[in-house]
Design brief:
This protein has 293 residues and is an alpha+beta fold. Among the domains are: 20-64; 67-171, 2-Layer Sandwich (Tetrahydropterin Synthase, Chain A), CATH 3.30.479; 246-293, no CATH class. Helix content is 54%, strand content 22%. The chain has helices at residues 2-22, 97-104, 107-126, 131-134, 139-154, 173-245, 247-263, and strands at 23-26, 30-36, 39-44, 48-51, 57-63, 67-70, 74-77, 83-94, 159-170, 285-286, 291-292. The strands form four sheets. Strands 6, 7, 8 and 9 form a four-stranded antiparallel sheet that branches. The termini are far apart.
């Protein structure tokens, strides 16, 4: 009885072990390849519980989702011989798991193959364009060209490249420093030219201002001389008219003007004879006749 129970127990354990070895599950994000002695037999893409021959067949799981491939930064020489460091990323999916397994076996093998193909196409496509194009809005079109070129090779591995993007495109450090130095030199040259032009304009403005000032002063002096001449002419005419009307009054007025100029200052000293003609109006006069003695 004990032997029988032992046998039943052993058989049950073997049956359970065999049953467990014959079952496998596939999730929604996976697809599986059933392999017998290393040779693929069939593909399982529907999620759920599935069966295989225990101890003879094995299961290889592959991802159904979009996968990322980070490409190491590459130095690309553009068509105009300028260097650019490009950091890119690609997204791909496994569309034919059987072909992929046959060619590269694992996802890591697929990544290695895609990495080589992508780097080659990035160098080829970007190297055929000038530096400015790589930094312009045409970069998206270049990425589409790279994607299409890589897809032609990726199909041989059962893989589809969905997208290729440039994460970053920088100049090499040495080039950046050289370009910065060139830009600084250009800005300094422009500043010097601007200062020189400003100085030239300032000199011109000052010269025009000095010329206009000289012209205005000359015109003012000319006008003042004309007015002074006219005034003096009118004064001479008035004096002449006054002299012709009353010669004695005119002589008296002129003498008063002379006294004012000669004796107007406190520090003026004159040494003249009392009989001098200059003081004739200080001598006694006949008020009735208005004559001088």
């Amino acid at each position: 009885m004990n032997k029988r129970l032992i046998i039943i127990g052993v058989v049950t354990l073997v049956a359970v072990f065999v049953a467990m070895g014959s079952m496998f599950t596939v999730s929604e994000t996976q697809q599986a390849i059933v392999v017998r002695f290393g040779n693929p037999k069939h593909i399982v893409q529907n999620p759920g519980l599935h069966f295989k021959v225990p101890f003879i067949e094995d299961v290889r799981y592959l991802d159904k989702r979009l996968l990322n491939l980070d490409i190491p930064a590459q130095e690309v020489i553009a068509a105009d011989q300028k260097r650019l460091v490009v950091d890119a990323i690609a997204r791909f999916r496994i569309v034919d798991p059987l072909l992929m397994y046959t060619r590269v076996r694992t996802e890591n093998g697929a990544r290695q193959q895609l990495n080589t193909v992508l780097i080659s196409n990035i160098r080829q496509v970007l190297g055929s364009e000038v530096f400015v194009t790589l930094l312009s809005g045409e970069r998206a079109e270049l990425m589409h060209r790279i994607r299409d070129n890589v897809n032609r090779d990726a199909r041989n591995y059962g893989i589809e490249i969905v997208d290729v993007r440039i994460k970053r495109a920088d100049l090499p450090a040495a080039n950046s420093e050289a370009i910065f130095s060139q830009m600084r030199t250009a800005r300094e040259r422009e500043a010097r030219e601007a200062r020189a032009e400003g100085l030239e304009q300032a000199v011109g403005i000052r010269a025009r201002a000095d010329r206009d000032r000289t012209i205005l002063l000359a015109e003012a002096r000319k006008k003042s001389e004309i007015l002074r001449g006219e005034g003096e002419g009118q004064a001479v005419k008035i004096f002449a008219d006054a002299f012709s009307t009353d010669e004695d009054f005119f002589e008296f007025y002129r003498s008063m003007q002379a006294y004012k100029k000669a004796l107007g200052n406190d520090d003026t000293t004159l040494i003249l004879s009392p009989d001098s003609e200059f003081f004739k109006f200080f001598r006694s006069m006949d008020p009735g006749k208005g004559s001088r003695r």
